[in-house]
């Protein structure tokens, strides 16, 4: 397209330069804020995600072992996990909720811990509390990130991989 064939579009009454000028200061401030946010290391965000999801499961595990008889009763009367007797299901759940979050938080075998808790989240969603899908989706998203991407730079997994495999 030649410059001679391009039409100039005149500014209408709502698009004068005096109208645009007051927006430049807030837009500049927004741009600076976004630039600052963009400088937050991904490793810090990954660590925060790992600690957040780990704390949810770890607290649940502590609650289970603090009052064992009511926990088994919940598995018998409310949770009703298929194929497992309530005592065994409660034991597996408590063990997973106490061990896997530690793996995830430390980033030591984090993918293994994430895989186990992702499986537990699936069971909770399908068989126990299907109405809590938005909460489960949040947990599952973080766990799937750790499972598929690893724990990140601020983890023992990365430190060990760097030492054993000679990579960061």
Describe this structure in words.
- This protein is mainly alpha-helical and 168 residues long.
- The chain has one domain (42-162).
- Helices cover 75% and strands 0% of the residues.
- It is built from 7 helices and no strands.
- The chain has helices spanning 17-38, 42-66, 68-79, 86-106, 110-128, 133-149, 156-165.
- It is extended.
- It starts with 16 loop residues before the first helix and ends with a helix.
- The relative contact order is 0.11.
Give the SSE map:
Elements: H1 17-38, H2 42-66, H3 68-79, H4 86-106, H5 110-128, H6 133-149, H7 156-165
Helix pairs in contact: 2-4, 2-6, 3-4, 4-5, 5-6
Structural class: mainly alpha
Run of helices and strands: HHHHHHH
Largest sheet: none
- What is the number of helices? 7
Low-confidence stretches: none
Total domain modules: 1
Average predicted confidence as pLDDT: 90
Calculate the terminal CA-CA distance, rounded to whole Å: 50 Å
Which key features would you list for this structure?
single chain; 168 residues; mainly alpha; extended
In short:
The protein has 168 residues and is mostly helical. The protein is built from 7 helices and no strands. The radius of gyration is 25 Å and the shape is extended.
